[in-house]
Amino acid sequence: MNRFIAYCGLNCETCDAYTATKNNDNELRAKTAKLWSELNNAEITPEMINCEGCKMDGVKTYYCDTLCPIRPCAVGRGYETCAECGEMETCEKVRVETENNEEALRNLKSLRSCVREE
Question: If you average pLDDT over residues 47-64, what whole number do you get?
Fold first, then answer.
């Protein structure tokens, strides 16, 4: 399984926080903080835009590390992603993430078909 596909299905390699961290790009951090602040109606500063990936050792955004309900659920159940969970289709935690991100849902559905084939 791709280690950069987060538990929720997001692709960490395409995340602006990951890219800004990997490239030490303060301009991208500022742009991302502004966008995420507007989208989430919360103050997000450029200093908060640091992440090495959901499943990687190292720094994560505050949301992914502390607030995300998906990550601890999947880890607690021993899943690589939510695609392994029989409740994925009806899970409110997953729905909140995937309703705003079609790529995450596509990734989970693709991984789910792989899990079922095994």
Answer: 92
In degrees and rounded to multiples of 5, residue 5 shows phi and psi of -85, 115
Closest CA to 60 of 7, 2, 104: 7
Whether the predicted pLDDT of 113 surpasses 90: no
Nearest to 18 by CA among 63, 47, 53, 62: 53
Q: How far is residue 99's CA from residue 86's CA, in Å, rounded to a whole number? A: 19
Amino acid identity, residue 114?
C
List phi, psi (to 5°) of 11.
-95, 105
Query: Which carries the bigger pLDDT value, residue 113 or residue 48?
Result: 48
Q: Across the chain, what does the average pLDDT equal?
A: 90
Q: CA–CA separation, 16 vs 28, rounded Å?
A: 7
* pLDDT of res. 91: 95
Residue type, 30: A
**Residue ranges of the domains in the chain?**
12-117
